[in-house]
Amino acid sequence: xxxxxxLRMFTFLCCLLFIANSAPKSYASNTSQEFQYFCDEKNxxxxxxxxxxxxxxYHTNLNTLLSNIVNNKEIDYGFYNFSYGDxxxxxxxxxxCRGDIKTDQCRDCLNQSRANLTAVCPNRKVAIGWYDDxxxxxxxxxxxxxxxxxxxxxxYKHNDNKTKDLNEFNKKLNDLLNGLKSKASSGDSKSKxxxxxxxxxxxxxxxxxxxxxxxxxxxxxxxxxxxxxERIPKDCCKDDIGGRVVRPSCFLRFExxxxxxxxxxYRRPPPPTSPPSSGSGGxxxxxxxxxxxxxxxxxxxxxxxxxxxYQRKRKQRKSRSNEDDTEDIKIVESLLFNLDSIRDxxxxxxxxxxxxxxxxxxxxxxxxxxxxEIAVKRLVSSSCQGDVEFKNEVLLLAKLQHRxxxxxxxxxxEGRERLLIYEFVPNKSLDYFIFxxxxxxxxxxxxxxRIIEGIARGLLxxxxxxxxxxxxxxxxxxxxxLDEEMNPKISDFGTAKLFAIDQTHSxxxxxxxxxxxxxxxxxxxxxxxxxxxxxxxxxxxxEIVSGEKSGGDRHRENLETLxxxxxxxxxxxTVTNIVDAKLNNCSQNEIMRxxxxxxxxxxxxxxDRPTIDTVLLMLNSHTVPLAVPSEPAFLLNSxxxxxxxxxxxxxxxxxxxxxxxxxxxxTKPYPR
Length: 672
Known about the structure:
The chain is α+β, with helices and mostly antiparallel strands. The chain contains 16 helices and 23 strands. It has 3 domains: about 15-255, Gnk2 domain, C-X8-C-X2-C motif (Killer Toxin P4, Chain A); about 340-425, Phosphorylase Kinase, domain 1; about 430-655, Orthogonal Bundle (Transferase(Phosphotransferase), domain 1). β4 (about 80-85) and β5 form a beta hairpin. Its main location: membrane.
């Protein structure tokens, strides 16, 4: 029966992803008949149970999801990434087959993996396994594992035999794997896979293979493989004629004298090619005549149809406008909540359900009749914004869909009540953890780094990837919410500024946001750009690394801002004074790099600050060089000292009022 282990035995590694840094083991290549697994009892960092009970909702969702993967006959490129169920029992899974494995064999392998993985890791919420020779990988978790690079858990195999000419072998192997790395990372969302070989002597060839999960970005794929290549002389197979480094997000393998892979199963569609040119002079002459004739005919046809298109242009524009309006009306209607249902969900906005109070209104926890948990922001009634503007802004927020942004579920507009209904994020805001001496102990460096990266990815969506460029204008620790897995979600878009996609700057007389996070050019002159958010991001990173508020009591007692404190220690070479004492035993290189990047973001001259896509590149690739930061804004005894702040602030408020586009906000804005 197929449910039993075949002669090509199943090689497994299963464990919770939070033990990614556990010391991996190395196995000789002749142990392919074995399988290894690690199963931890619970996620120690968040104290969440790592087991599910038999026949529970999670167990049912897991079985359904794995069944959907192995029975999927529409995917023919060997990569499956699906999720199933609702929080807290949502299950995420990835199935990946080696690039040379055919579709039917791939599904058989995943089906076999499903049976064996659930057997060797019973009742575990998080598991990962590789079938013999890594022909397929199956992985599932109770947290999202999509679009992210995970380096661990990892395992290594090697061939004990040594090569004769070490220098030639190692150089050629390194060149081969680095070439395959570049080729695989340039793949598409269906396949990031590359194979190749080189000749070692007249008789031997060395064959290499690299592959990433296709949901990775090209940069993440390249970094994952690069880090795997670095492990070859350290943990895997120094000077050996064969070896492999296997990780959740990528793997590589090389062997000498035999080709261990077959013909590539999935090939990307080739780009369109031009017709071949003729080598004959007569044919070239005829081709030229044909080309000229075709061009003349094409011009005549274009002139004829242009007139008709011009005549229909206004009608088409009007038709599109009506269609867009109709679609927007449908979206708004689908987002509309009944006031009575929200009152029932929040127990009539009782104080027991109150989550917090902000400048724009109170936030309440609610539970809808179907059991869904929500967060309801009850806006202050002093807003002068009209109903149409309110609905337009709700429509904009509803279209912002990203895992690092809090999702707007709907709104309510009845009488004097204006309510915004968001997804409920259980772990409160970042400031609740990072500035509390007790709770901050639960945020190790891995968690803090993940929060920094998540905030950056959310900003990348707002600044670059969304249909319209959005400047948040109030990025701070209190507006970063943390989900059940401590992943960050940017919230509170009440002060957000809408830019056209090619717009870079804007001016305003309404200065909104939070002092300590506002860029100088914005706070004093009302100049808004994406670099305003980058300044706030830099302050956030410094707070996360140091555990200190940007205007914390410790610094205010001696009139020293957080940026002043960091810059002074940076110049003096005492950077360790900046780091939260709870992180002393953590990755110093990564922490120092984050401080360096933050200082680049808080430079006084906005033109010197990096954009968010550059910041993400610097965070995820240690090979990208960092510029030398110049003096930050808001330093004592600098061009942005407290005297000049006061003077310039007064000057800015006296300049003539000027309306700015899209200035309307959900509530009447004021600094808070």
